[in-house]
Amino acid sequence: PQAATAAAAAAAAAxxxxxxxxxxxxxxxGARWVEYCATCYLQAAKHGPQRHRHELVNVLHQLAFSDHxxxxxxxxxxxxxxxxxxxxxxxxxxxxxxLLHREAPHAKALLLRLAQxxxxxxxxxxxxxxxxxxxxxxxVTQTARQxxxxxxxxxxxxxxxxxxxxxxxxxxxxxxxxxxxxxxxxASAQAAGEAxxxxxxxxxxxxxxxxxxxxxxxxxxxxxxxxxxxxxSSPEERLLVVVYTLLxxxxxxxxxxxxxxxxxxxxxxxxxxxxxxxxxxxTKHAEFVxxxxxxYERDLDPEQPTFPSRLSELIERLKRWKRxxxxxxxxxxxxxLRLEDESPQLRGMRFVDVEVPGQYSGDAELTSxxxxxxxxxxxxCDVHVVRRHxxxxxxxxxxxxxxxxxxxxxxxxxxxxxxxxxxxxQLLGSLNASLLHHVETRRRGLAxxxxxxxxxxxxVRLMEDDAAHCTYGEVYEINCARYGREADLPISLxxxxxxxxxxxxxxGPEAVLDLRLKAFSDIAQNHxxxxxxxxxxxxxxxxxxxxxxxxxxxxxxxxxxCFVSALLRLGGRTPQKIMFAKNTGRVFMLDFHPAxxxxxxxxFVEPVPFRLTRNLYTFFTxxxxxxDFVAAMAAAAQAMSAPGANIETQMMLFYRDxxxxxxxxxxxGAGPQALLGPTPADxxxxxxxxxxxxxxxxxxxxxxxxxxxxxxxxxxxxxxxIHLVEASINPKNLCRQEPTAMPWL
Length: 745
Fold this sequence. Notes:
Blueprint: H1 2-14, H2 28-47, H3 49-52, H4 56-65, H5 69-78, H6 92-98, H7 104-117, H8 119-164, H9 169-212, H10 214-230, H11 235-252, H12 263-276, H13 279-284, H14 286-300, H15 311-332, E1 336-338, H16 339-342, H17 344-347, E2 376-379, E3 382-388, E4 391-400, E5 405-411, H18 418-436, H19 439-444, E6 453-457, E7 460-465, E8 469-471, H20 472-483, H21 489-497, H22 499-503, H23 509-526, H24 532-540, H25 544-568, E9 578-581, E10 587-589, H26 614-640, H27 647-661, H28 680-701, H29 719-729, H30 731-734
Antiparallel strand pairs: 1-3, 2-4, 3-4, 4-5, 5-7, 6-7, 8-9, 9-10
Helix pairs in contact: 1-2, 2-4, 2-5, 4-5, 4-27, 6-7, 7-8, 7-9, 8-9, 9-10, 11-15, 18-27, 21-23, 25-26, 25-28, 26-29, 27-28
């Protein structure tokens, strides 16, 4: 709305900068304009919810970053009952994380109202958040006690030193250390208080929901408890994941294959060995331990005398274990399980009020009524086992009362960064609204594929799946299996070719680059052809019409993913993390979220802006890359930079959430204070710095009309995208990538 735009400009001029400052008499005018701005957005959502509900992201942005949070909260309080409840459903993750910030009272008021009207949209995220906050509050409280005890000890030591010799250097150092410990103890006590307040706020919302919908909560608890406990992987499958991960780590380790196994990696292998065959595993899975423990410890336990001395020998042993476990898993474990064997309680349960999961997230379109929401009839009796690159997931089919079916993978043992992937899917869903309202992207049908994700437990979630889903890496592995080639051979050859550079025999940037380029060219000519993906799709798709449609859709979808990769600097696009649907051409990136360094800035060290390697380029064809790919990527950039796209607002909330859920305690910083992570004020500063970098990169990708000049000096309006494409297909850049990225594929 025009009024909201004018009020937003006035609010920005009044000083809504994101700093924390109390409202005083001097800035009453700024607080009034901020309240007017929030009122305009809320009025728009009240009178046109279907059209203007996406504008509510501006209200949440003001609530989180404005100097005048109370003014925004005052506007929210006035419109709490006027705005329909369902328009807040897409922002449930942001509202839950707002319980950790200064706007917690206003967020809790919205959550309480939403819990009464839409309990199933709230229950799973709220339940998972509550469990995570309980664990975090316990951890932070324990850390605060440790730091308080340390501060007390250092303070006593400083007093004692001052009594003995107040002018000595040791006394001054003791006093400085005591002040530092006291500051750390004070910060930890404040963090413990904030964590407790967030937990209590979420607990209050949960109690209100359970009181209002007790029968529904009973059914949901049975369902979620069974999903979290009954569909975990077998110990053989978990050991296969461990072997895959260790082999991947060996390939990435910056040492020569002829060198000894590094001491840090030996220590990690020792811990892995103890964890895989712990006392708990020995009790629950005695047959597994009896079959594998002795051989595994003989081959891969650094404390045994039979442990290999060189990295190349360790890689060969891991490859042998990988082949053995793959054969055992595929031969012994069936591809389809029976639900009555896995969970008898779910097999005999008839649901009354529970809805089919995933109807409030992903590509689902929300409406003001609940008539379109499908009730859950039952769960299919067949539990399929989906195996991809060493991982094994149980796949459940939820049958709706209208006869519809929806498949979900039960993903267990999630890493702390999994919440970041869910926030990324939510951001892509928000960007779809901007793509829908822009003429160039709408006429091309450009939209991100966002599968539904339902959190079940802190380390368990449901991920929407389809039988036609396949990864780019699976295509390569199928080709290797057909012709009897080892899939990891190019990685081993590339790593061996770089031994001279690692050991120092070849020095200098140019010489090392020539060595890498020679190894890359040798693999591309003799081991991995450029038409593997093309041949696979030619054999998979039935007709030429299907092939043409699939190729065009895949080109558009991959262009959208590459645009986000270049804009947000997201790397790690290995073939195993690029998933596509064989029937629709939709692309979904796995583990697609930013990584941060210790200062909270996006970490990106790859020489290419996105993945457009040989097989993809060949399948798209040069005409498709210069045509559809470049045009789709440029159109997406133009849509994001158009007026009213709210890209900066969405990015601010996105980075704030990502920084809040980032596993800071796993960073390299040691000591109890590292467990606390950054404060909410630090998070806002970090988010602002990351968004500033994003907004600097966006104009470089967006098409720019040429200035008035001579005809011979005219440049393409898409020169920014063309420059990125040329950088991503340049062999000199590709050969500088990690061997695990498989740049030759």
